[in-house]
From TrEMBL:
Organism of this sequence: Streptomyces adustus
The keyword Transferase belongs to this UniProt entry's keyword annotation: yes
Protein name per the record: 4'-phosphopantetheinyl transferase superfamily protein
GO cellular component term, pick one: cytosol
Gene Ontology MF term list: holo-[acyl-carrier-protein] synthase activity; magnesium ion binding
A Pfam family this chain is assigned to: ACPS
Membrane-spanning segments: none
GO process annotations (BP): lysine biosynthetic process via aminoadipic acid
Statement: the UniProt record of this protein carries the keyword Nuclease: no
Amino acid sequence: MTDVRYIDVDQVPRSLAVLLDGRDRARRRRILREADRDRALAAWVLARLVLGERLGRDPAALRFDRTCAHCGDPDHGKPVVESAGPGLDFSLSHAGGLAVVAVSDRTVGLDIEDATAGVRPLDAALTDRERAACPDYAGFVRLWTRKEAVLKAAGKGLDIHPGRIEILDSTLHALPAELGRPEDYTLRDVPLPAPYVGALAVLGPDSAPRVRSGAELVRNAARSVSSSLPHGRTHG
């Protein structure tokens, strides 16, 4: 079962940076644009809260291993929760003013985009049949989220050229051999507040995800943090 939570970025107070560990706070500080730092904070705070709820653990105590499964680099692999054991995976994405997290008992990839952003993906990222099937930006952005979700589930990101994946009418038709077979994946669109669109790719069969707001989780965490910190103290 896959659980998807979303949150408006401006609903996540910066005081919740206290939930991040030192390594993640350092990563956030290296992000140049303030808006991008806020999006990253919202996504990782929500991820910690949802994962902590799922595991029955303190969100602030969670540690993540980012070792790349393909090259062994310790910093750019798909994050996994240390000591979580098998049967738990997660993926996060953010765009514009929304952050979204998916947690699953199967390998999962999630991508979201702002359907009004208007930045059309490069034609080279699409196959001839995909270009013919997507005459407008709305079609392109929906297809783009589906491709990104598959790549994120595979832990490859854009290391695999998206033009090597073909998706027609929300059905995965072609994949590079190193990613497996199209029928190995369950691909679904994720209903999100307008103007955002999202897609979820799960390795193996999976039922429809449960999609809901993470606002209550964030509010409860903010109240807890506020009551435990000296007045005026925050973590950046």
